[in-house]
């Protein structure tokens, strides 16, 4: 999966999903946001899903263009902090074999993702 992200627009939707998550869960997938990136009818759609098993949030994120389709569960605290710290407003998020990379300008941030099979 590979996304081109505009931080200002994307963060509005990311923070909605982030508020739904409990950071004290023993299940890793519950401390993450499920991201589904697809191209439907020539249109790039990125969906965010989050849950704490009591409350669920699903939204279509603005400010993200799908370069390669895929789905992944991103660790909410780690990725949220990296997005906020990215030096440029436009950056790339790519996932390969459970490993994520955010490329912003000359900076590269690496992190590990969670399995989508564990997400409820």
Structural category: alpha+beta
Rg, Å, rounded: 13 Å
Percent of residues in beta strands: over 45%
Taking the alpha carbons of the first and last residues, their distance comes to 21 Å
Residues in helix, %: 10-25%
* Secondary-structure element order, N to C: EHEEEEEHEEE
Outline: globular
Identify low-pLDDT runs. none
Mean pLDDT score: 89
Q: Tally the beta strands.
A: 9
Number of helices: 2
Strand order of the largest sheet: 5-1-7-8-9
The major β-sheet equals:
5 strands, antiparallel
Summarize the structure.
The protein has helices spanning 7-19, 76-85, and strands at residues 2-6, 32-40, 43-51, 56-60, 64-68, 70-75, 90-96, 99-104, 107-112. With 120 residues, it is α+β, with helices and mostly antiparallel strands.
Written overview of the protein:
There is one protein chain. With 120 residues, the chain is α+β, with helices and mostly antiparallel strands. Helix content is 19%, strand content 48%. The chain has helices spanning 7-19, 76-85, and strands at residues 2-6, 32-40, 43-51, 56-60, 64-68, 70-75, 90-96, 99-104, 107-112. A five-stranded antiparallel sheet has the order 5-1-7-8-9. Strands 4-3-2-6 form a four-stranded antiparallel sheet. β7 and β8 form a beta hairpin. The longest helix has 13 residues, at 7-19. The mean pLDDT is 89.
């Amino acid at each position: 999966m590979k996304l081109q992200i505009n931080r200002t627009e994307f963060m509005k939707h990311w923070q909605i999903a982030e508020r739904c998550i409990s950071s004290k869960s023993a299940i890793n997938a519950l401390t993450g946001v499920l991201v589904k990136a697809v191209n439907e009818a020539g249109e790039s759609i990125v969906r965010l899903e989050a849950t704490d098993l009591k409350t669920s949030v699903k939204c279509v994120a603005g400010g993200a263009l799908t370069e390669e389709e895929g789905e992944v569960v991103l660790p909410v605290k780690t990725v949220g902090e990296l997005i906020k710290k990215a030096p440029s407003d436009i950056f790339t998020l790519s996932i390969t074999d459970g490993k994520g990379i955010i490329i912003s300008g000359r900076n590269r941030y690496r992190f590990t993702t969670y399995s989508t099979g564990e997400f409820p």
